[in-house]
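fwd from M.: "can u put these together and see what the complex looks like"

so here's what she sent:
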Amino acid sequence: KQEVTQIPAALSVPEGENLVLNCSFTDSAIYNLQWFRQDPGKGLTSLLLIQSSQREQTSGRLNASLDKSSGRSTLYIAASQPGDSATYLCAGLRDDKIIFGKGTRLHILP
Amino acid sequence: ETGVTQTPRHLVMGMTNKKSLKCEQHLGHNAMYWYKQSAKKPLELMFVYNFKEQTENNSVPSRFSPECPNSSHLFLHLHTLQPEDSALYLCASSRGSGLNQPQHFGDGTRLSIL
């Protein structure tokens, strides 16, 4: 059974720091890996989608990597800002099943 | 504004009530989804519709009944719910079929079962 794990569950860092969020999955045969952001009381916002043939995707200060052999993905946030505070979720897709992690709750300290 | 609108935003109902959740997308997408987000549990995919046809039902109890009259509208009809059904219900849409496309989410309906 595919499982997606996100560590840590919560993270607080000072503004301006670079940080890495981790996502691991048990089944390396995933089709793609997506990172989402969720603000309190809101739905999810898709940040980056990495296809199985890709190794990484970049959007602005965000960079996501995918290593299927080790079953890991990381989301790198450069020069963090208070507006980056949110819960970040990763999700793996395989066989038309999408499995989400529980998320990492990120707090950027001003 | 995400382009996906869910109503109502909050709903409180008794276990014997019948209510419906509504989702509307203005993005011209062909696929729509219902998700359940419970406290301290991962987001769970409930139903998938492609071009108005249901293509996925992830073992969801029959007290949840989806309806997709067209590619822009999705409903979730609720009846005889249980307290454990209290959760945030999220609707999403995507271009094309399958889950291999970025999804756009609404802000959800917070459902509380008394």
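replying to her w this: The radius of gyration of chain A is 13 Å.
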